[in-house]
Write a structure and sequence with these properties.
Length: about 450
C-alpha cells in the first residue's frame, strides 16, 4: 500500500519532538467550573480536528451536519443550532475552530503532510476526533469508491510515543460521560501502562446472523476459531463468513511492542485456505439462511434484503467470529484524544467529555461513525426511547436484536483499533478470490511480508 509522503519527511523529527512533548503522565483536572475560562485570547481558538467522513456511509457533508447539529424551537419556530453553538451554550469553550481534512485524493495527502509536520514540531490541533483504519468513500464526481488512510495509522503506537495527553485526572471529574456505562473492555484499548490516552467512540464485532429458530448460541470467552471448525455446520460457516474484517479470526493482528505481525505465515496460510476452500461447502451444509451481521447501526433494512429466506420479523441469533487465541474482539473504528501539546487541555477535555456523553452519542454527528460501521460505546442506546441517528432519522434495534447484541457485547474478550492491517487482510481475501497464475501460498507470502514491512516502517 502506498505510504504517505509525510512519514519520510518527518521521521527525523521524532526524537526532538517527543522530547518537547508533555510527558502524558499527569493529566490534572480542570480547576474552574467553566471550560471557557482559559486564556483563549493568548492562544487563539481551541482547535478541534474532525476526520470521520472518509470511511462513512453517510453521504452528507460533515460540515453541514455540524452546522445543523441540533434543532431547537424558539417561540414555536424551528431553528438549527450548530455544534459550536451547542458547546458554547452548555458552558463549554466559547471559541472553537473546527478543522476538517479533505476526504480523499492528493488534497488529503498534502493536508496530512503539513499537519503531521506541525504535530511533530510540537503544535497541531488540541482535540482529535478520528476514524480508525482505512475507509472508502464515494467520489461524487466519478461515482468511484476511493480508499483513504487515517491521520493515525496505528493509534496503538501513537499512544506509546506520547502523542496524546493522559486523561486519567480529567476523567475523574467528567461531567457528561457516564463511565459506568461505557463498555469497559472497549475503553481499555485506549490505555497503556501509563494511563488512559484515547477514548473509543464507536466499535464493531464481526458476526454472522442466523434465524433463532435454526441456531442457539451463547457467546463464549474461551472458544477459539479452530473450535468453530469442529462445531455444528452453522459454526463452521460463521468461521469463514467474514469479509469486511476478513482477518479477525487471526486477531490480534499486530505485535506493536515489536512492530511485526502477531501471527506466523503458516497460520495465515491455513486460515485463508479454510475460508477459500470451504465457504460454499459450509453454506450448503448449514442449509439455513444467514447474513454477515457485524454490530452496527443499519437503519430500517429488512432481513429479507440479506437473504430471501428470511422473514422480516424473524427472531435472530448472532454468532461472533472467534479468534485464534480464544474469545473474540471488538474493533474500534473511531476515537477521540487530546494533543500532548494542547495549549488549553481543560477546554479540550470538555469537548471529548461531551463526545462520550449521551447527547452526542445519539446525534447525527455520531452517525458518521456508526451507520453501517459500528455501534456507540455508550451502553443503553438503540432501544426504547434512547434512539440513535442513522444519518437520516432516529433508529432503534428490535427487542430481539438488542438482546443478541447485548449478549455479544457483554462477552467481548479484547478490543483493538482498526488499522491498515485490517484493510490488507480484506484486500488479500479479495485478491485470492481472483484467478491468478501465482500459487495461493505465494500471494499470501507477499501480503505477509508487506504487512510486516508496514509495521516495521510505521
Amino acid at each position: 500500500m502506498k505510504r504517505l509522503i509525510s512519514f519520510i519527511l518527518i521521521i527525523a523529527l521524532l526524537c526532538a519532538v517527543f522530547a518537547g512533548c508533555k510527558s502524558g503522565g499527569g493529566g490534572g483536572a480542570p480547576e474552574e467550573s467553566s471550560a471557557s475560562s482559559g486564556s483563549s485570547e493568548k492562544t487563539g481558538p481551541l482547535r478541534v480536528f474532525i476526520d470521520v467522513e472518509y470511511g462513512s456511509s453517510v453521504y452528507a457533508r460533515i460540515e453541514d451536519e455540524l452546522l445543523e447539529y441540533m434543532e431547537e424551537y424558539d417561540q414555536g419556530k424551528k431553528k438549527n443550532v450548530s455544534f459550536k453553538a451547542r458547546i458554547k451554550d452548555m458552558g463549554g469553550p466559547s471559541s472553537i475552530e473546527i478543522e476538517i481534512p479533505p476526504v480523499q485524493g492528493n488534497d488529503r495527502e498534502i493536508y496530512f503532510t503539513g499537519l503531521r509536520t506541525e504535530i511533530m514540531a510540537g503544535g497541531g490541533p488540541d482535540v482529535f476526533v478520528c476514524g480508525a483504519g482505512i475507509g472508502s468513500h464515494e467520489n461524487q464526481k466519478t461515482g468511484e469508491y476511493i480508499e483513504s488512510e487515517p491521520l493515525f495509522r496505528y493509534p496503538q503506537q501513537a499512544m506509546k510515543r506520547n502523542m496524546f495527553l493522559s486523561l486519567d485526572g480529567y476523567i475523574e471529574n467528567a461531567k457528561y460521560m457516564d463511565r459506568e456505562n461505557l463498555t469497559s473492555i472497549v475503553m481499555d484499548a485506549g490505555k497503556t501502562e501509563k494511563g488512559q490516552f484515547l477514548l473509543p467512540i464507536t466499535y464493531t464485532v464481526p458476526a454472522t446472523l442466523f434465524r433463532k429458530s435454526d441456531v442457539e448460541h451463547t457467546p463464549s470467552k474461551e472458544m477459539k476459531w479452530e473450535d468453530m471448525l469442529f462445531g455444528e455446520p452453522y459454526m463452521r460457516l460463521a468461521a469463514v463468513n467474514a469479509w469486511r474484517y476478513a482477518g479477525s479470526g487471526l486477531a490480534p493482528l499486530g505485535d506493536y511492542d515489536h512492530d511485526k505481525l502477531a501471527m506466523s505465515e503458516e497460520e495465515m496460510v491455513r486460515y485463508f485456505n479454510e475460508k477459500l476452500d470451504n465457504l460454499e461447502k459450509y453454506e450448503s451444509e448449514s442449509g439455513i439462511p444467514s447474513a454477515r451481521g457485524d454490530l452496527r447501526v443499519t437503519g430500517d433494512i429488512p432481513l429479507s434484503f440479506f437473504d430471501g429466506c428470511f422473514e422480516d420479523n424473524d427472531p435472530i441469533a448472532l454468532v461472533p467470529l472467534y479468534s485464534r487465541g480464544g474469545g473474540y474482539g471488538a474493533i474500534i473504528n473511531s476515537f477521540a484524544g487530546i494533543n500532548a501539546n494542547a495549549k488549553r487541555p481543560d477546554e479540550a477535555f470538555w469537548v471529548v467529555d461531551y463526545l462520550l456523553g449521551e447527547e452526542c452519542q445519539r446525534s447525527g454527528f455520531c452517525a458518521f461513525m456508526t451507520c453501517d460501521r459500528g455501534v456507540p460505546v455508550l451502553e443503553g442506546l438503540m432501544t426504547g426511547k434512547k434512539t440513535v441517528s442513522d444519518g437520516i432519522e432516529n433508529w432503534t434495534m428490535s427487542d430481539n436484536l438488542y438482546e443478541q447484541f447485548c449478549a455479544v457485547r457483554d462477552s467481548i474478550s479484547f478490543a483493538d483499533f482498526a488499522t491498515p492491517l485490517d484493510y490488507e487482510m480484506k484486500q488479500l481475501y479479495f485478491d485470492l478470490l481472483e484467478p491468478s497464475t501465482k500459487p495461493r501460498e505465494s500471494i499470501i507470502h507477499d501480503a505477509y511480508m508487506r504487512m510486516n514491512m508496514m509495521l516495521a516502517e510505521s
